[in-house]
Amino acid sequence: MESWEIVGGARLVGEVRLTGAKNSVLKLMAAALLAPGRTVLTEVPDILDVDIMGQLLTRLGAQVVHDRPARAVAIDVPDQLDHRADYDLVRRMRASISVLGPLLARCGEADIALPGGDNIGSRGLDMHIAGLERMGAQVSVQHGYLQAVARQLRGSTIWLDFPSVGATESLLMAAVTAEGRTVIDNAAREPEIVDIANMMVQMGAQISGIGTSTLTVEGVDVLQPVHHVTVSDRIVAGTWAVAAAITQGEITVINAFAEHLEIALDKLATAGAHVDVHADSFTVSMDTRPKSVDIVTLPYPGFPTDLQPQFIALNAISLGASLVTENLFEARFRFVHELARLGADVQTEGHHALVRGQPGLSGAPVEATDIRAGAGLVLAGLVADGVTTIHEVHHIDRGYAGMVEDLQRLGATIERVRHSD
Ligand code: UD1
Fold it and tell me: Which residues pair with 291 in a beta bridge?
């Protein structure tokens, strides 16, 4: 067991370098199953979820080697795969569901335990299931397992009710070797979708409309393994941008693409920050108390729900009041009770939160309830007076490789504390 102790008050100054996005690499690992042979992914973040996905792929028959110093994962995929993803792995990580499409495509069947994962709402699978059914799969739930069978997936036109990231990825991975043409309308457009689509094109898939809300796939017979560089993590980038603003510091984020974060960086500029954009980096600096900014989370290119807790932390110490609207995950405001322990004034009503900025926060013990809530609490702890102890930091480690060490390099006073309980 580990907790993090932060003494607030330091101004963060310096550079941090991003690696690849958690929300991309886990899906790229699943997509590797589509092609027998060795796929190599680089810029892989050193986070627990990569190891869980590695164990899942190993259980399915692949060999996975994670070379941490090289930030690379090599996946050797056999001709024959097992098609069952067991509860003990799937419950640890919701992204396990991303093996559904590839297994159905490769084996004609998939048995996947219903996922657990982040504690941020109900997160249904109905769009994954409806889309696969349209492509000819028979899907049922038996004894806690999603069972899908399709000897040959057939191309179809699928209109998603909502541009779900997970459903778009599942259907894309199922469609690339289906018979004929698949059209996914109202598809998600996140940079991580673009990344997986580009990787599959490199593997030999025929996909057009990448980066738009209509994806058209012409099924091909076989795919080839590839080497692919994971797109950098825009949510980690955004978290560092808020860290600069909240501590009135100056942080340059390297290997970051500002165009993936346009709304979030614009909000920081509205809050009073200076944002300098370069080819593959950006710098955020702040020299006054921030002004409160209203936030509405939406699918990309809207404001990302995964940066909502970090911006609530920022608004908690900003001048004025702000309204934050969460449109993706109903339980994402749960962490405001923890933020209140630091003295934040946040009132929630359904999917709205009213944040009244305070002149300061005061350090206290708090608990991370999910990855991004944990990041929000760390940011609040950086400016709270005295010591903030963050418990359940294993959630944060799932999304932020080496966050404590990066914070120390930037000048924060933060330590990892190990407990025996
Ligand atoms: C992914 C990201 C997560 C991010 C989210 C939205 C990963 C591992 N996680 O999650 O960090 O916050 O995108 O950007 O990539 N829904 C349904 N039925 C479905 C599918 C989704 O009702 O079949 C609902 C969900 O309950 C949720 C909303 O749609 O309310 C968004 O879900 P989705 O876009 O699929 O997010 P994830 O892929 O789960």
Answer: 319
